[in-house]
Predict the 3D structure of the following.
Amino acid sequence: MRDDMFKVIVERPRWGSRRRSREGRLYRASEDVPNKIGMKQGYVHRKSLNENLAPLKRWLESQVNRPWDKVYAELCANIDRRNTVQEHIFAHIDAFVERETRLIDGDVYALSRWPRELQRIDESRVTLYVHPVTGILRFNKHRESWRKIRNRQWAKIDAETNAKQRGLNDTEQLHKIDGVWYHVTIATMAEGQPHHNAKTGLIDTTFPKHWDVMQKKMVSRSCDSKANSQNLFGKRYVYATAKRQLSNAELKRHQLNNDTNDNAGDSRRFF
């Protein structure tokens, strides 16, 4: 570790230093400022800590496969824990290295960040951990980034959506209802109309209602929630104006199939 690591991590310009000086000058140039004011008066954005933890993270990752006791000793040798600012660096070590690990039935378990409970290392999101038996600093090769997890979740949602819904254009969609594919026409709900309330003397807004053939009820912008039109049609403030079952030719053209093992006949009868 470089001798000036604490300077690289801690000693750099603090957030708000430039904006702070500008705000102070503007405040003191005002005619409403009293003759005697405090040094900190007039600053909306105070300076705050601005730590650069990337070098510390890279250095810890470069120490993989070394005994953690030696890595920690090197940290203590180069960072003065008697100094309050430098000692604060050790508060961030637990954010990069999981030291509380257990060996259960041959598997390594680590404490998850939230909730704080034991979790198998291959299911945990910790980057580095200390092996409970050997004490060696190890890299969690099973860890997935938030971006990868999010992309996998979105791919799953898209796959589930495509299995029961397809968008053709802004006003036409295909929906699978009880195993049968339907062509659905959607429209945008009408905007609210303001009017004068003679009883209260205030301006009220009336939202026109529409019959939704998918939900089989009257809908409007005032009663449309995110769980309704967003989940059904993928957009807010729309409703289904018409619905018809796809023909065999349309199913073939869109490469779709009706489920024959469910109550397709019942769905045709009720819809």
Q: What stands out?
A: The radius of gyration is 31 Å.
